[in-house]
Amino acid sequence: MKQFIYPFIFLFCLIIIFFSCSNQSKRSRKPVSTITITPKSQNYVLGNKISIKVHTILKDGEIENIQLFSQGKLLKESKELEFTLSNIDLQKIGKHTVHVIATKTDGLNNTRSVVFDVVSDMKPEKFAYTTVNDYPHNRKFYTQGLEFHKGFLYEGTGEYGKSGIYKLNLKTGKTIMQQDLPNNYFGEGITILNNKIYQLTYRAQKGFIYNLTNLALIDSFQFQSQEGWGLTNDGRFLIMSNGTHELIWIDPTDFSEVKTIEVANHLGIVNFLNELEYINNSIFANVYTTNLIVEIDPKTGKVLSETNLDGILNMYTNPTDTIDYLNGIAYDNERDRMLVTGKWWPRLFEIKRIKSE
């Protein structure tokens, strides 16, 4: 009996396979595009020109249009299955996306993208440093923000349950005034603008605003980035980092994003931008996990200079001491001096930058 059933089962399976293949052959298939960029390069330099070739394979049906975009801007729309666009200027530093949308007359479409980096067209100046003065620094401060304002040092600290804002005596390191954050917030960068202190938090997408006179909390705000890191201002807008290679300008009236720049030197994208300070129309930033401070052009994102602070803390620590990374840049505009420190560091330093090349 069982042997009699097997041929029918086999025939039934063949019928199913036949109709399945028949239906698939009638199904509309997506167009497939490839993008070729010339000249080929690992990184492209700001101001370079490139050519983009688009080749689309069509298995069935007819093409309605093929659209080529660069950084979200439509460059060309065509029905040609192969075309090349030449002499495209790379005018902005950062991640550059080229994508193609190929659409058939039946509405079926497909998208292909290519992402590459555009780097700076200049090599940063190299600086070493000399220590002019050093001051006491609270070893318990996990430094996230640093600001010097009218003779006093202001510091924002991190870690859950230990975050806050402090007004300090620079020479003694003693706390004059403080305001603690609730335990569920991890404090990040701070800046002073229009007699208010602004403070970011790490992953809550929330910032706080304090009265400069007494550090009383007066307001809060939301920001769009997933993480808040460093904070400074240009006299009009807040400027924040978010742990990537981006710097974001924020309007302090409604906390909308005004603009974003991406940061790169001549070798590549510079990630992990951390604590920030706006000095003489440049933005200075700590690069997290390094002893490097980069100077950034706020218009283009080019790294203008790099200052290496290797060894600055050596004589003040022992192998058993708990210290973390360099993080904290403050500028005394009246005396033209730069102050730096780090997370859990025992000292804060006044430095002078010296060209090393």
Overview of the structural elements:
- With 357 residues, this protein is mainly beta.
- The protein folds into two domains: 32-119, Sandwich (Immunoglobulin-like); 125-355, YVTN repeat-like/Quinoprotein amine dehydrogenase (Methylamine Dehydrogenase, Chain H), CATH 2.130.10.
- Helix content is 7%, strand content 53%.
- The protein has one helix at residues 2-26, and strands spanning 32-38, 43-45, 49-57, 63-70, 73-78, 82-89, 94-104, 109-119, 125-136, 143-149, 152-157, 164-168, 175-180, 187-193, 196-201, 206-211, 217-222, 231-233, 238-241, 246-250, 257-262, 273-279, 282-287, 292-296, 303-308, 326-332, 337-342, 347-355.
- An eight-stranded mixed β-sheet has the order 22-23-24-25-9-28-27-26, with no helix packed on it. A five-stranded mixed β-sheet has the order 2-8-7-4-5, with no helix packed on it.
- A hairpin with a 4-residue loop joins β7 and β8.
- The chain is elongated and about 80 Å long.
- It starts with a helix and ends with a strand.
Question: Would you identify the regions where 5 or more consecutive residues have pLDDT less than 50?
Answer: 18-24
Instruction: Write the element-wise H/E pattern from the N-terminal end onward.
Output: HEEEEEEEEEEEEEEEEEEEEEEEEEEEE
Question: Average pLDDT value?
Answer: 92
CATH architecture identity of the largest domain: 7 Propeller
Count of distinct structural domains: 2
Count all strands and give the number. Answer: 28
Structural class: mainly beta
How can the largest sheet be summarized?
Answer: 8 strands, mixed
Shape: elongated
Share of β-strand residues: over 45%
CATH class of the largest domain: Mainly Beta
Radius of gyration: 28 Å
Helix content: under 10%
- What separation lies between the terminal Cα atoms? 93 Å
CATH topology grouping of the largest domain: Methylamine Dehydrogenase, Chain H
**Strand line-up of the largest beta sheet:** 22-23-24-25-9-28-27-26
